Input
Amino acid sequence: MAAEAVIQYLKDKGMGDRITIHEETIDTVEHAAEQIGCTEAEIAKTLSFLVDDKPVIVVMAGDGRVNSSKFKAQFHTKPHMIPRDQVVDLIGHEPGGVCPFMLKAGVPVWLDESMKRFTIIHPAGGSEFVSVALTPDELETLTGAEGWCDVCKLPEANQDQDTQTRG
Output
């Protein structure tokens, strides 16, 4: 049900041609990159946390990992992932298909700076078989994000490469 609502939402926003329905699962960053044909870093992974006992979504590049001290600086608490068995109730999507669209009312979305280094990123589309190709700006607009944050750590090789790219 969630995927159909997300697909319709994206079509209504003029993004229907950006949706891909996959034959095989995209439930992990690795699976998604294989199915989409991009790098793992270009996958926009959607993580769900509890902040002050309320759900919060953070979307970050697929090669990023949550940095506890950066997360605490942003949200004033240590990162606590929502337990798998509570994700549907709190977020509105099944684990493996959590995406930043069509969430339960009041769930804020934050976008991590790690995605800004890509022209196109690929978040899930409401199920473990649906993805959408968007620019970071389109993702920001479509999610109604609270804003951009810096809560992840990239692998050293990618940090060095990003520094060289930005010059």
